[in-house]
Design a protein that fits this description.
By secondary structure, the protein is mainly alpha-helical. The chain has 2 domains: about 100 residues, Arc Repressor Mutant, subunit A; about 50 residues. Helices cover about 60% and strands about 0% of the residues. The chain is built from 9 helices and no strands. Helix 3 crosses helix 5, helix 3 packs across helix 6 and helix 4 crosses helix 5. The termini are far apart.
Length: about 170
């Protein structure tokens, strides 16, 4: 029913945004419809019977395709014509969408894997929590400890120089 309304509106009003909406997959439209209804990723996943990560990736792809600022804006772009005001919900919004993609700036980077990113102790899009191997975790603990020691040494030397200047 909802998809028929979208299709009829798209054929009546050809707009560049609406042309892109036609390229969305049915699952992306379902996810955006539920986002428009102010559902969280967890609620969407439960209703559609898929994982939260899959929901977030569908939404992220749709946001990118539509060129929207965030998931709410993407949902409004698709469904605002059907329902002028979004239903209210008094829960905090959880975006679950990465603000920018590193491969978006360089199209050639999408074809090769960015192995240097995997070495950093930060979580990247799509990574599981606690995905550092023990040896890599130990490496970063030692790097951080070394950095703190060097910083503290520089502080002590700096304070010593200031103390000598004030004598």
């Amino acid at each position: 029913m909802v998809m028929q309304q979208i299709s009829s509106q798209l054929s009546a009003n050809p707009d560049p945004t609406e042309v892109v909406v036609e390229r969305l997959s049915p699952r992306q439209r379902d996810c955006l419809r539920l986002v428009f209804e102010r559902r969280t990723s967890k609620e969407i996943a439960a209703e559609l019977g898929i994982s939260v990560g899959t929901v977030d990736s569908y939404i992220a792809e749709a946001v990118t395709l539509l060129g929207a600022k965030n998931r709410r804006r993407a949902a409004e772009m698709v469904f605002a014509a059907l329902q002028p005001t979004a239903p209210g919900k008094l829960e905090a919004e959880t975006s679950g969408v990465v603000a920018s993609d590193l491969t978006a700036e360089r199209p050639e980077a999408g074809t090769q894997s960015s192995t240097w990113l995997k070495l950093l102790p930060i979580r990247t899009a799509g990574a599981k929590p606690h995905d550092l191997k023990p040896i890599r975790r130990l490496f970063w603990i030692l790097q951080i400890a070394f950095g703190i020691a060097v910083s503290f040494g520089m502080l002590v030397v700096g304070l010593d120089v200031i103390a000598r200047l004030l004598r």
